[in-house]
Amino acid sequence: MLVIGIAGGTGCGKTTVVNQLLKELPEGEVGILSQDSYYKDTSHLSFDERVKINFDHPRSIDFDLIEEHLTELKKGNAIDQPVYSFVKHNRTGDTIHTLPRKVMIVEGILVLSNPELRKMFDIKIFVHADSDERLIRRLRRDITERGRDLDEVLNRYKTTLKPMHSQFIEPMKEYADIIIPNNHYNTVAIDIVKTIINDKL
Ligand SMILES: Nc1ncnc2c1ncn2[C@@H]1O[C@H](COP(=O)(O)OP(=O)(O)O)[C@@H](O)[C@H]1O
Ligand SMILES: O=c1ccn([C@@H]2O[C@H](COP(=O)(O)O)[C@@H](O)[C@H]2O)c(=O)[nH]1
Prior knowledge:
Blueprint: E1 2-7, H1 14-24, E2 30-34, H2 47-51, H3 63-74, E3 79-85, E4 90-98, E5 103-107, H4 115-119, E6 123-128, H5 131-145, H6 150-169, E7 178-181, H7 187-200
The chain binds adenosine-5'-diphosphate and ligand LLZGTKA7.
Adenosine-5'-diphosphate (ADP) binds near residues 10, 11 and 185.
């Protein structure tokens, strides 16, 4: 199994890059683990308490469960990936049955920040977009898809997203094998990564 870690700040285009790769690679050969599925269970907290969580700090992620699931997949066993609701800020209780594939992509803002998980990646990719571009994308997406309003996104950006990005995400570029510039749609970079994956299939 080839394991690829894809990190980068919120709104840089990780999900878009992964979807482009999925579209162009042979069906059934590539599987995805999304870091978003592994936000810690917050059922013991009220909604008002959950809103106050710093979701951009590594402690908000259940890295042990990601590693456990990736280890099982590497052994050839299927896993049940939790489904997360950004509207409720909690796991929904549903799961996605995820089968082992020749290529497994692990995608999320902080997937390169955890040393043990990082060691499990054969290829490490960092998707870069400038912070103003990412903020614009995040505003659009969170308002249309995640039920947020302008003030909420801007306030979260200032208090947590920006400082956490500088502390835990941007420095991870140092570990990347490939950095994809993604201020604009980058079909050349997608083609290069696709070729590398196809070579290993
Ligand atoms: N290169 C790009 N140019 C313009 N918009 C983009 C680009 N890549 C992604 N987007 C848009 O930005 C938003 C965030 O992209 P997404 O892939 O969800 O980012 P991430 O998973 O890194 O948070 C989405 O609405 C997506 O359509
Ligand atoms: O309950 C939650 C959990 C996370 N977030 C925000 O999501 C982004 C990470 O997702 P991307 O798709 O990579 O943007 C992170 O910056 C968290 O702030 C949330 O809003 N609510």
